[in-house]
Design goal:
Length: 498
Amino acid sequence: MEMLSNFVVPFLEPRLLGLVALGTFAGIYVGAIPGLTVTMATALLLSLTYSWEMLDALAMIMGVYTGGVYGGARSAMLLNIPGAPASVATTFDGYPLAKRGEAGLGLGLATVMSVTGGLIGTMFLVFFAPLIADFALAFSHRDYFLLALMGLMLLGALSGGSFLKALFVAFLGVNIGLVGLDTITGTPRFTYGTLALAQGINIVVAILGLFGFSEVLMQLANRRKSEVVAQVGRLFPPLRLVVRLLPLVVRTSVIGVFVGALPGVGGEIAALLGYDHAKRTVKQPSRPFGEGAFEGIAAPESANNACIGGALVPMLTLGIPGDAVTAVIIGALVIHGLNPGPTLMINTPELFYVVAGSVFLAHLMLLVFGFLGIEFFRRLVTVPPGYLLPGITLLTVIGAYAINNDVTDVVWSFGFGVIGFLLRINRVPVAPMVLGIILGPLLDESFRGALIAANNDPGTFLLGFVSSPVSLVLSTVILLTVLANLGVFKALRRTGGG
């Protein structure tokens, strides 16, 4: 009963209700602007709210966090520019759906599925937080390496029909992700003596170039062929479609929760895993994946919003940040005199449920503000290219510069734009490069950490892949995925049928 009374505090306290609403509204529009990440917005809020009451500050931050994760889908679907790395997977079917003249339906569907995934994630946070935290603690360096390797196996879903091309591009992405100072030894890697490369290449800068600026170049190259989409379609997804997608959304939401609970993994991997799960399990999609399939929007959007609840689990129960945003939130707790960690739930259990209630409320607000703002956003697809392309270029420049207030990042984004353009005109998928950049550091750090834990003994290292239950399950999944990507199962079915 005490749990319920604390959970509903944000609903009953007008001040907290208003702060959650304001934060959610602001988060949606911050997330929709490429380059202005939810982590940046949360960090700014931390400096503005340090003198506030603790619950007031947390209510506002939870609203911005929730709205920001969802907001990135809007530019992803309408402009083919992910507002955040967690929205990369949404571009695969969201942008083709907008080009089909169904931008309104796509945005409405993304809103409903984001809310559904977020609510499922919050319920897991409330009822299963200790169990999920134990699951996250069971992961060793070796398991993180396997998880990153499993992420690279998503190439089968992102290859666009050419697995070898996707593998080559992903390999380039992994190497780009390793540029900068070695996180273990501190020595420079692939910097070629250039100080500007010592900090590494920001993933958001790469995304802005590979998706944003390359889209401008593609539109200019095909300006005679391109036509403005005159219809934006209906706004509210039909109930029959929502019900049909619900089993998939529940599965991808569970994926999002557990991926979110793993420290340092994040919503981008959750969304990609959700998309891959949809592509592998949905036998009869509404349309082919990559051509505006509704399943290709529902899966990543539900997964990355469910990831919010998952990321809060290790933060609230163990004091370990699940992602960059929760690392900032831990800073907010410290500023307000709290000690994040296991003692937090013992000494202030009411705080846990107030935070969970704020996240739940923020997702309900998301449903309201999400639909209210769709009309404005969906009109973007009817803007003539002569006006839209300079706007996209300006957004790319502002977004890249805003990350570190450095012109060098703008230059990098243009460079990645040229690379993305050359890949796309040669029908080579761009998404695997982003996947490689994201997973490269995780692969490197976890592999070397696992070797160090095994005392640099190859035999002990390899034995760990089958001696640990978690490692054994992940190793089996990777093996099956590799065989599927190589077409072994299809060949066996053909042989059996013959």
